[in-house]
Amino acid sequence: MSVDARFDPATPAGESTDAAPAPLLGIGVVAGIAASPALWARPRPQLPTDGPVVPEAERDEQKERFDVAAATVADRLKGRSEKAEGHAAEVLEATAALVTDKGWRRAVAKHIDSGTTAVVATVRATDTFVAKFEKIGGLMAERTTDLKDIRDRVVAELRGEPEPGVPSPEEPVILLAEDLAPADTAGLDPELVRGIVTQLGGKTSHTAIIARQFGIPCVVGAGSALTQIQDGSLILIDGEAGEIETTPDPLKAEARAKESAEVQAKIRSWTGPAVTADGTRVQLLANVQDGAGARTAAATGLPEGVGLFRTELCFLSAQSEPSVETQAGIYREVFEAFHDQKVVVRTLDAGSDKPLAFATMPDEPNPSLGVRGVRIAFDEPGVLERQLDAVAEAVKGTGAKPWVMAPMIATVEEAEWYGKLCRDRGLIPGVMIEVPSAALLGDELLKHVEFFSIGTNDLTQYAMAADRMASQLSQLTDPWQPAVLKLIKMAADAGQRADKPVGVCGEAAADPLLACVLVGLGVTSLSAAAPALAAVGVQLGQATDEQIARAAEAAVSAPTAQAARDSAFDIIKGGK
Ligand code: PEP
Ligand code: MG
């Protein structure tokens, strides 16, 4: 195997041919080029794990100090949330709520009762929660950034130190950080923060999600090499290639950033619907997670419907199964936000990185290969059946005709069984293509269901046997891998033979260049977070049908992910 420099995000991209050092490499998560002086986020406080034993008589005072500090931090975050909008406001509010979390506060009080200072108690209580979340892994592990963030804010407050995190820049900067907490990113001003680079994080980290929402070029997972960059030094970042140039030519850097800003302006003014340069329509849909998200997506006017409603995200904190009525109420909100338009509901994808208290097997040795997705219904179909009842109930009076798909389908029997459950309730059944076996069995599966939606995040994870959350495996968890493209083509071909639609709803659909390739492979719709759609629409509009077909052909037969990307780039963007 030839070792690709990309394998280690902290490794420079290889030998440079001129005097300039090779760019540092991370994972590009929001396309666009920015060139500005670097500014590091304020360091996190030093955290003691031990300290003097506090005499019993002084412990109440420590508790009071903690309460005051926590309340100050919560108020500050709430104040910012009131000034922010949309998702940023929700993130700030959620972080403020975390500061008031009873379990965490009780744990801090318990440590103080055993004689630690308020600072040490805050650190120890948080460590326990972080360890628990890391053990669960996946999305829960990503929540540890939020926990550590509130810990740092409270500790700084207890010590009378300035708030850690993002300083307020006076001129445009590229923000550098080890990692950014949601509360840091939510308050960003995109006029001043022109780019973001973090040492840690992956494609689905909060930094990536928020940067995408603001359209700020962003590179994550750049590793420890980033620390060589000093505050104030000019850097150029390419959020598509994941590159960070540490000594760019100032004039060229300015010109590239300007050109990129022009493309971004086109993206901002794009209104849809998506058509290729030859006028071929491509359906663009939104990924949503609840009624509020659906309304926000609908308000952009860009999506033609919902391509993935991740229902499990509505119930991450539910301790018991929500009633059919409660579920129906939530689903109805989404149908109403997109009335008359296509809405693809996904049944609960519980387990693995999205554990639900009422539908996840405890203590599985290998949760991503365990009882997750539709598998939760194998032994106890009740939860799935009641969810489908709730979807059918939610339809009443809305005129919606939802398409309802199951995650993690792997066999023909599963598709047949699931298809019947939906049809019995008057729902249109489909399955997600996330397990390679499902792509291989496309023709057989489509005898039992009406559509496919390809979940490229999991399809890539399972095709490449590489954990989608492992940033050090990003070379493998890359949907440009030719093996993954071949599986996508197999599913799309099966759809064409059966004359049934095949969409993509994984992150791959949000990559404008890859979106062209997916269309060339025969995919009929693309679904992504609403803020990502305009860039996809602009890119499709600049490509002819012939270029799209040729790029797909070249990518699927390329020897490596990088070669697939390069050949598609040359054909679509380079006009070759
Ligand atoms: C996917 O796997 O691509 C997908 C869309 O599902 P999720 O990311 O929610 O697992
Ligand atoms: Mg999935």
UniProtKB/TrEMBL annotation:
Phosphoenolpyruvate binds at R310, R346, N457, D458, R468. InterPro entries: PEP-util_enz_mobile_dom (IPR008279), PEP-utilizing_PTS_enzyme (IPR050499), PEP_util_AS (IPR018274), PEP_util_C (IPR000121), PEP_util_CS (IPR023151), Phosphohistidine_dom_sf (IPR036637), PTS_EI (IPR024692), PTS_EI-like (IPR006318). It is found in: Cytoplasm. Its main location: cytoplasm. It comes from the Bacteria. GO terms for molecular function: kinase activity; metal ion binding; phosphoenolpyruvate-protein phosphotransferase activity. Mg(2+) binds at E434, D458. Keywords: Cytoplasm, Kinase, Magnesium, Metal-binding, Phosphotransferase system, Pyruvate, Sugar transport, Transferase, Transport. It holds the Pfam family PEP-utilizers_C. Belongs to the PEP-utilizing enzyme family. This is Phosphoenolpyruvate-protein phosphotransferase. It comes from Kocuria soli. The lineage of its organism: Bacteria, Bacillati, Actinomycetota, Actinomycetes, Micrococcales.
